[in-house]
């Protein structure tokens, strides 16, 4: 099942994909179908009753680590993001004025399904509710070597599109063999496969749950492969993972108002 | 009827190197590798929801960890419209780490590692916070006095500089930083210790430290 969270007709609804349309789950509109173009797409995440933990990985593909002139890390290079940076499919991401290098990062995002504490890799995938696509934009002009990657690079408003779908884990038999790619204005710029992760999904769940309890709805953004390029206002960025979804985002410039 | 003690409803951010004493101690190293230059923007970290421990509740040391750092801080609680609506005492617990190069997730996001004051005090004037002094006692013995007059970025400046790149949403919390002792370290505690953080106008924040599975 592919699940979405959308705004339509003045309210927020849960929906599932059905033959190229969105089928609403809201009781009043149960079964009604609406087109992809008729809705506003929100992050495909149910609200939870505590602040959502959003974990992310740096340098988790060997080729990307090399691209950035780092040797592969010996333990996960993890950082944390605020939920406020998340936006949905087909949204706008702001490029600040005057910066030289802002790039997308196509990432497999893992959504936790049940409380996970000291989980072993062999059991780890049982704790996954599903998968979605995240685009973890970075603005490299703001990189500083203090708790790097620092939040000014990685936690900006609008800079983490996610979606369009939360795909049930049961429908993703092998999350470690998914092709992913990014296009900028239709031109292929990034390609990879989740099989090339340095720390795979199960290992990441074991690592994090070793010191922190992961809760349903928490997210792990698993890092990006080689092939990041600068994005300018007006560029349409599509980050895509086979079987998970195709996440569209458009860069816009900072308001001069 | 007593309301349930407060827990943050949004993301909790911590600020590194925002007290003059620690900033000055670090200054000679700031131009060296791997840092290469002093921080320009506020250096932030996140205390994830699994770290929240209510006032009065115990904080567990993980197995294999004999002692942890404790630190008094003040959290600025965002209201609607991006303003500071209140302030809360916090005990920012960490496993000591020498390097500030990589994000400190495994040192700071351990289950239970943020003691949270039981109530948010409304704040209408950020200027008044500059006179605030936080006192930290371990088993009743004074270990550290933290004066917000010693901030590198004062409360208003920090709030503005952080909101310049990430909007604080209603319920989000921004810790103003934690001071170090004269030698650059922070008070450390072990199993069995009780930590009390106090400040004028706030209810004391007390958390005992226990072994895991206690």
TrEMBL record, chain A:
<dbReference type="InterPro" id="IPR012684">
    <property type="entry name" value="HPA_isomer/decarb_C"/>
</dbReference>
<keyword id="KW-0479">Metal-binding</keyword>
<protein>
    <submittedName>
        <fullName>Fumarylacetoacetate hydrolase</fullName>
    </submittedName>
</protein>
<dbReference type="Pfam" id="PF01557">
    <property type="entry name" value="FAA_hydrolase"/>
</dbReference>
<keyword id="KW-0378">Hydrolase</keyword>
<dbReference type="InterPro" id="IPR011234">
    <property type="entry name" value="Fumarylacetoacetase-like_C"/>
</dbReference>
<dbReference type="GO" id="GO:0016787">
    <property type="term" value="F:hydrolase activity"/>
</dbReference>
<feature type="domain" description="Fumarylacetoacetase-like C-terminal">
    <location>
        <begin position="54"/>
        <end position="251"/>
    </location>
</feature>
<dbReference type="InterPro" id="IPR036663">
    <property type="entry name" value="Fumarylacetoacetase_C_sf"/>
</dbReference>
UniProtKB/TrEMBL annotation, chain B:
<keyword id="KW-0413">Isomerase</keyword>
<protein>
    <submittedName>
        <fullName>2-hydroxyhepta-2,4-diene-1,7-dioate isomerase</fullName>
    </submittedName>
</protein>
<keyword id="KW-0479">Metal-binding</keyword>
<feature type="domain" description="Fumarylacetoacetase-like C-terminal">
    <location>
        <begin position="11"/>
        <end position="208"/>
    </location>
</feature>
<dbReference type="InterPro" id="IPR011234">
    <property type="entry name" value="Fumarylacetoacetase-like_C"/>
</dbReference>
<dbReference type="InterPro" id="IPR036663">
    <property type="entry name" value="Fumarylacetoacetase_C_sf"/>
</dbReference>
<dbReference type="Pfam" id="PF01557">
    <property type="entry name" value="FAA_hydrolase"/>
</dbReference>
<dbReference type="GO" id="GO:0016853">
    <property type="term" value="F:isomerase activity"/>
</dbReference>
């Amino acid at each position: 099942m592919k699940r979405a969270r959308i705004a339509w007709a003045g309210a927020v609804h849960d929906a599932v994909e059905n033959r190229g349309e969105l089928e609403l789950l809201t009781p009043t509109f149960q079964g009604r179908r609406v087109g992809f173009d008729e809705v506003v797409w929100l992050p495909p995440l149910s609200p939870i009753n505590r602040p959502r933990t959003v974990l992310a990985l740096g340098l988790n593909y060997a080729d990307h680590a090399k691209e950035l002139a780092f040797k592969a890390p010996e333990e996960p290079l993890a950082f944390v993001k605020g939920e406020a940076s998340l936006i949905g499919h087909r949204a706008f991401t702001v490029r600040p004025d005057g910066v030289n290098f802002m790039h997308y990062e196509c990432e497999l995002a893992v959504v936790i399904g049940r409380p996970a504490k000291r989980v072993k890799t062999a059991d780890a995938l049982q704790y996954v509710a599903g998968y979605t696509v995240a685009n973890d934009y970075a603005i490299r002009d703001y990189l500083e070597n203090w708790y790097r990657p620092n939040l000014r690079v990685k936690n900006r408003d609008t800079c983490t599109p996610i979606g369009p779908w939360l795909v049930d884990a049961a429908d993703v038999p092998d999350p470690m063999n998914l092709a992913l790619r990014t296009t900028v204005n239709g031109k292929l710029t990034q390609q990879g496969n989740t099989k090339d992760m340095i720390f795979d999904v199960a290992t990441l769940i074991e690592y994090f749950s070793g010191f922190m309890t992961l809760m349903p709805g928490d997210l792990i953004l698993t890092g990006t492969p080689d092939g990041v390029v600068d994005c300018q206002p007006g560029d349409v960025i599509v980050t895509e993972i086979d079987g998970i979804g195709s996440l569209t985002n458009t860069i816009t410039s900072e308001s001069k108002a | 009827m007593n309301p349930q003690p407060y827990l943050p409803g949004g993301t909790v951010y911590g600020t590194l190197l925002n007290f003059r004493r620690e900033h000055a101690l670090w200054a000679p190293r700031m131009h060296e590798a791997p840092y290469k230059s002093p921080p320009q923007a506020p250096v932030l970290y996140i205390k994830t929801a699994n770290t929240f421990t209510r006032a009065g509740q115990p904080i567990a040391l993980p197995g294999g960890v004999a002692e942890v750092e404790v630190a008094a801080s003040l959290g600025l609680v965002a209201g609607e419209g991006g303003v500071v609506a209140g302030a809360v005492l916090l005990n920012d617990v960490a496993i000591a780490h020498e390097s500030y190069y990589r994000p400190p997730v495994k040192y700071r996001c351990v289950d239970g590692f943020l003691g949270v004051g039981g109530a948010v005090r409304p704040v209408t004037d950020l200027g008044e916070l500059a006179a605030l002094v936080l006192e930290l006692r371990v088993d009743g013995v004074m270990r550290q006095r933290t004066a917000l007059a010693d901030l590198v970025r004062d409360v208003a400046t920090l709030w503005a500089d952080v909101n310049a790149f990430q909007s604080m949403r209603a319920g989000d919390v921004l810790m103003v930083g934690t001071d170090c002792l004269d030698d650059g370290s922070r008070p450390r505690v072990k199993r069995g210790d009780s930590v009390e953080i106090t400040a004028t106008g706030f209810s004391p924040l007390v958390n005992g430290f226990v072994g895991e599975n206690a």
